[in-house]
Amino acid sequence: MTTTRRTLLHAATLLLLGAAGAARALEKAAGAVVLSVVGGVRSPNEGSAAQFDMAMLERLPQTSFTTRTPWYSQPRKFTGPLLRDVLAAAGAAGTTLRAIALNDYWVELPFDDAMRYDVIVARLLDDKPMAVRDKGPLFVIFPFDSRPELRNPIYYSRSAWQLRTIEVR
Amino acid sequence: MAAENDRSPLGPVHGRRWRATWLSVIGAGLALALLAVALVQGRQATLLNQTVQIGDDYIVLTVYQAETEYLRLRNQWARASDPRFALDRQTLQLRYDIWVSRVGLLHNERTLRVLANQPEYRETLAKIDAFVARADRLLGEKADQPLTPAALESLEPELATLGEPLHGMSLRAAHRVGEQMSERNLAVRQHNQIGIGLTVFLSALTLAFALLALRQMRQLEQRRAALEDLAASLRLARRDAEAASEAKSVFLANMSHEIRTPFHGLMGMLSLLRETGLNPRQIDYLRTATESADHLLALLNDILDMSQLESGRMTLAPAPVDLRTLLRDVEALMRPQANAKQLALHLDTDPSVPERVMADPTRLKQVVFNLLANAIKFSDRGAVVLDLRLREGSNGTPELEFVVSDTGVGMDEATVASLFNRFMQGDSSRSRRHGGTGLGLEISRNLARLMGGDITVRSKLGEGSTFTFRIPLQPVADAPAPADAAAAERLPPHRPLRVLVAEDHPVNRQYMAALLENMGHEAHFTANGQEAVQAVQHRSGQPPFDIVLMDLHMPVLDGVGATRAIRALPDRAAATVPIVALTADAFSETRDRCLVAGMNDFLTKPVNPQKLSASLRRLFGSASNAEAAPAAERDEPLEPTGTPPVVDLAALASALQSMPRERLAAMVHAFLDQGPQTAQRLHAAVRDAQPLELRVNAHAARGAALNLGLAALAATAGALHEGAAHLPAHEIARLVKRFEDLLPVTREAVIAAGLRPPEAAVATR
User: Fold this and answer.
1) Mean pLDDT in chain B?
2) Please, where are the H alpha helices in B275-348?
3) Short-list B703, B738, B740, CA closest to B718
């Protein structure tokens, strides 16, 4: 029931976004490309991919939260656009996302995760840009502290850092 | 039973204590076991949480990836330091950064926790850190040396030395995590075993608990059964006790009879003795003897009342009572006693009190008498006052209130509290001084309650007492007062009667003889019922007896049996002789039994001249009309004064208008033919003392006779119908006889009136 409703909502959102996308196609990345959304992308700006530079991500609505993670001993503050906004900007449609990191590490997560949780594509750690050696420049992070059900290895592994590509299937 | 009583209170108490201890032990055990289960489960949850939070297995991946990235960096590093290739600075930088980020994770405190006890871990980390510090001068954010293949090459051996320890660390991590996993598995297994043990323990405790509860229930069941047995035996005991009490009251009634019979004779003899011309000394002795006898009689009456009240056989006979007359009678009796003690006696009746009320005059008088007698008995000076007034009862209905106050010794509270108890008198010293059975007040209060009222008392020591006797007011419907007993007694004596007395006791025989002779009657005696039956039958030329006085308790055949035998006699005159019971049983059952057997009246012993005279008057009327009526009947038995003609010619004439003469004649003769049968039925009804049957038969006969114009027969049947319930048996018998005698007379009259019998008519035709 909830799933059906969610799917409907999802479809509606996509339709709206699709309409928006059709009206205003994704601009071309002016700076160094930090994130490519490939696969089921309806608003590509470079071939079949939607490419983002840091400025484009910065222009999307920003979300911040502080949470504990397995990778840091202290709670850290993460800031960046919501994953669903990024996907919407790219006009992404599909059921599964494959997040691929700089070191070719990849992990798959359901498209639904982006809708259900306020997952952000963090670009700032404690309000500072993240270097590669600090697991940057982009870090997919779930709101672990506000959603206790996320505090398990499944979601820890879905938090891909050094994100470079999202493949929409 | 006594031994059981000594033991039983200890047994159950001990058992209960034992059971309570066991129950608490098991309860505590259960609570502890449940707590332990909770602890084990909590521990397991913590263990699982640890796994989840630390993500130890994740560390294996971290170290593995650090090693992989190291290998990729080393590959890239070798390529970059090779002068044959162009330096790909960007790729090297990325690989380096990624590796450094991976190495950063090895510093993570979680990784530290897993690998901390590996000595070479810190060593390896230190080596890596040293290398990164050097390499950062070429590739770091604040690089201060130019990135040249030569510089890279100089660092390559150091990078190469990191390979083996990193690989070792990876293996270590894998092994360590494996060990931790198996440790956790072991812990989980242990917890499982503990959990199983606890469950078994819990089950055992629950079983024990259930067994104890079962035992408890069984004991409760046993106790219930025991209680039921006890209740059953108590019921049995109560029935026995009731039977015993019943037997006692029967014994009491019999004893009162046995005592009163000779006593009755004794008193009679005393009163006769007084008439025999005694000297003053003898008169004095006789007076003392009579006083003692009176006292004894009062005691006997009290005991009889008590036994009747106790057995619930006391019944009241309410009748219209003239209250003022009743009080005058009481005053007349009490005045001499009050005068003897020089006490003032005032009886005052409020004007609002009605003239007459419905009440049992005897019992009402008894209570008032008792209260006044007590007041006089316990007062030595001053006055005794009785106020009769009307007041509103607690439920708003009017009540009669007799307030008897005296200026006597009074009573303290304790005495008042126990005053109405049996055998209780004011106090023992007074009882010695005043005598009495001590039953008087109890009887009075019981009588008052039987009448729907009560007796209450207010008293203060030395200040006299006030007894209040109240009963609900039952007004009399306005009707002329029937002639009461006193009026009847004032009537002149009746004609001399031939009296048969069936009495086994010689003293009583003598007494009755004297009594009856004094009244001018002729007394004959038989000693038992059988003789009485014979005496009534075989008169051998003697005139018949006018009445039989029948004692109930007699040898051979008792009074009831004799009465039945007499009523069943074929000789009509003998069978209808009036019979009066003489008995000392005042129980209403006895009275009913006598009347059912066919007796006409009932006298309780001791029989005094007044009672006997009243009874005879009830049966034979007063002398004047007793003389007149039988004479008239004897002279002209079929035509008493005012009797209708034998045949009502006018009625016959009107009947002839509606039917032919032959038809009427046939009907009249048929009725007259059935006459003897009707008479027989009437006789039977009289003999069997069946007034209802008598009434029904008489009524039918009267109706038919009226229709056929047979006036005399109709009048006789009508008299029978009306008198069936209340006329004495001999009167009824006389009416039946008259009915019978009228049959041939009537037949002659109807033939004379021209209604010939149908046979004659047929013969004529």
Assistant:
1) 79
2) 280-310, 323-340
3) B703
Mean pLDDT value of segment B633-661: 62
The Cα B716–Cα B466 span in angstroms is 59
Does the predicted model carry a pTM greater than 0.80? no
CB contact under 8 A, B108 and A102: no
> Of B717, B723, B753, which is closest to residue B738 (Cα–Cα)?
B717
Domains and CATH numbers, chain B: 56-220 (1.20.120), 319-472 (3.30.565.10), 491-629 (3.40.50.2300), 644-764 (1.20.120.160)
Give the pLDDT confidence of B329-370 residue by residue, as tens digits.
Answer: 888 888 888 888 888 888 888 888 888 888 888 888 889 988
Residue A150: list chain B partners with CB under 8 A. Answer: none
Q: Is 80 exceeded by the pLDDT of residue B385?
A: yes
Q: What is the ipTM of this complex?
A: 0.75
How many beta-carbon pairs below 8 A join chains A and B?
47
Measure the CA–CA gap between B606 and B260, rounded to whole angstroms: 7
Residue B2: pLDDT over 70: no
Q: Which of A133, A138, A151, A164 to mutate: most B Cβ within 10 Å?
A: A133
Q: Annotate B665-701 with DSSP letters as a single string.
A: HHHHHHHHHHHHHHHHHHHHHHHTT-HHHHHHHHHHH
With an 8 Å Cβ cutoff, are B101 and A71 in contact? no
Closest CA to B535 of B547, B518, B553, B552: B547
3-class secondary structure, B127: helix
Is the CB of B97 less than 8 angstroms away from the CB of A132?
yes
Collect all residues with Cβ–Cβ distance below 8 Å to B430 and sequence separation of at least 6. B378, B409
Cβ-contact B711, B645 below 8 angstroms: yes
Who has greater pLDDT, B741 or B763? B741
Which of B300, B288, B467 lies closest to B379 in space, CA to CA? B467
For residue A103, the chain B residues in CB contact (below 8 A) are: 65, 68-69, 72, 98, 102
Structural domains in chain A, sorted by start:
2-168 (3.90.420.10)
Phi, psi for residue B322 in degrees, rounded to 5? -85, 110
Q: Count Cβ neighbours within 10 Å for each residue of B723-745 and write b for 16 or more, e otherwise.
A: bbeebbbbbbbbbbbbbbebbee
